[in-house]
Amino acid sequence: MLAISGKFFWGGVSIAGLAIGGVLGFAFLKTGLTIEALLTENKELKRAIENLTTEEQIGYAKVISQGEVNGKELTTLKFVETSREDPLNIVFESEFTIEGNVVHFDALIVKFSDEFVQDGKGRSLYLWRRVYGEYMPPSEGFPIEVHGREPERYRGLLSKLPMNHRELFWAEIWDLAHDKGSLQKFGISAVFGSAVYTELRPGLIYVFKISSTGQVYPEVIPDL
Predict the structure, then answer these.
(1) What pairs with residue 198 in β-bridges?
(2) Counting C-beta atoms within 10 Å of the first and last residue's C-beta, which end of the chain has fewer, N or C?
(3) Percent of the chain beyond pLDDT 90?
């Protein structure tokens, strides 16, 4: 190693140059792994979004039991999340007990603009967040999907992306629940299904469907 004019050389390469290159390389790695880079540069991500198909049914709920317990009306319901490919295929199911008979079903709807995909036809993701009753704050609701994680119904959608890219994408998408306008300049917006609530009664199935505007609504059918 030689010292010339205050600079150190190792095998003909300046240590200062290595340091600068290291900083730039680190910055590249750090700034390269951003949601902005994924949305604008990752072709596999865009292909995956383009493969999303129009959905009509995204789940259903029904009453397991309903009655008064210690002076309070309690409703135990089963919530089922169905597959994107087959509405008869269950990807998640769980039972929840809430006070009262009016239940809120909270879904985050993530819309990709027409400009984001090549064919000019917008796509959407429908992410179930939580279930809660009318006598409890939403923040204390029962979670359906875990915030930041890849939802079960979209497992495999981004299989061609590296794991760290998938984790970054889902973390940023879920955060749209707190800042729905943060990714609008990249062709993504979030719409909340916060008004999706209904009075549940035994003997009925509440099938959650998607309207043409992307809103979730329940369609009630007999539980035969």
Answers:
(1) 103
(2) C
(3) 47
Domain ranges of the chain: 2-32, 46-222
Residue 210 pLDDT: 87
Measured over the CA atoms of residue 95, residue 96, residue 97 and residue 98, the dihedral's sign is: negative
Strand, coil or helix: 177: helix
List, in sequence order, every residue forming a beta bridge with 13; answer none if it has no partner: 10
Alpha carbons 208 and 224: distance in angstroms, whole number: 18
For the chain, counts of helices (H) and of strands (E): 4, 13
- Could you tell me the pTM of the whole model? 0.77
Task: Taking residues 88-97, report their average pLDDT.
Answer: 93
Whether 112 and 188 have beta carbons less than 8 Å apart is answered as yes
Q: Count of CB atoms within 10 A of residue 109's CB?
A: 21
Q: To the nearest 10°, report the CA torsion of 168, 122, 195, 60.
A: -80
How far is Cα 142 from Cα 148, in angstroms, rounded to an integer?
Answer: 16
Which ranges constitute the DSSP H helices of 6-160? 15-32, 35-41, 43-50
pLDDT digits (tens, 9 = 90+) for 14-52: 444 434 333 333 333 344 578 888 888 888 998 898 888
Please list, in sequence order, all residues whose beta carbon lies within 8 angstroms of the beta carbon of residue 170, skipping any fewer than 6 positions away. 148, 149, 150, 151
Strand 90-99 versus strand 123-133 pairing type: unpaired
Sign of CA dihedral 31, 35, 41, 42: positive
Positive or negative: CA dihedral 119, 120, 121, 124: positive
Residues 6+ apart with CB under 8 A from 222: 203, 204, 205
